[in-house]
Amino acid sequence: MLILAFESSCDETAAAVVENGRIIRSDAILSQVDTHALYGGVVPEIASRKHIEAIAGLTDKALAGAGVGKSGIDAVAVTYGPGLIGALLVAVNFAKSAAYALGKPLIPVHHLRGHIAANYLAFPELEPPFLALCISGGNSMLVDVAGYTRMSIMGATRDDAAGECFDKIARVLGLPYPGGKPMDDLAQGGDPHKYRLPRAKLDHDLDMSFSGLKTAAVNLIHNAQQKGEALDLPSLAASVAAAVSDELVPRAMEAARRSGRRVLAAAGGVAANRTIRADLERACQENGIKLYLPPLRLCGDNGAMIGSQAYYEYLAGVRGDAGLNAYANLEI
Fold first, then answer.
1. Helix (H) or strand (E) holding 14
2. What is the pLDDT of residues 98-144, one digit of tens each?
3. DSSP 204-245
């Protein structure tokens, strides 16, 4: 089964063709990073306009890359939430039009379910049940994946996401947008213990909070600037990464213990962070848990992950119609 899938939830426009949920036939992505870097973050109105400009051409590129014509597509899939509402609406409406014109089923896909499904593309042997650690610029949560379409949240951030924490601190340091990779690169060789940064302790101990960490790091930077004191920037970046990892990794291990899952899959852009990847590998080895870390190219937003999850949504009977809407917030 060939699924033409679209993703436009933030600042990447993507179109892909995926076969049977596991094989990437093509994956065309156009990033808007250079545009939004001028503003230090994503400007929603600009993102929406850029999606409109790109999506038709990317569709042609995805079909050509897959070596298939429009008539060879069996279904059309699209991210319908969560994300920037204007950005989401571009792909949602384009996908509805494509499905109607081709006379093919329309499959709505949750963005985070897509990130989890990116692991299916990289690891053919991976099947539910397992535990997923979803960490991105907009979301941080622990998800019990009981089945391909049966998921429940065990813990989540109560405020900022891990990726937002990296982005905001990077912006104060004057690093390029998005801040995740520059912060990761800066942290290499730094001392992760040099700066004492807070770790949140919450009543629901599988929930997370990153706002205090972000505020503490920003205040530390501002105080040093006001006093004319030099900061050890690699060590600060390493300390931030260690603090984020200390929020994520122990909770993931505890969630695995409580759920009885012996398999953990990471998902989302922050899963590319080297400190977090190394800490997850170490913790999983110590606790006898099989770990799946998606390759870096599948950590960020892409259309292939939507096409992968769409296959399983299709098998479960999920369908959209002309009334399909986009949602800025959407339960997984």
1. strand 12-19
2. 999 999 999 999 999 999 999 999 999 999 999 999 999 889 999 99
3. STT-B--HHHHHHHHHHHHHHHHHTPPP-HHHHHHHHHHHHH
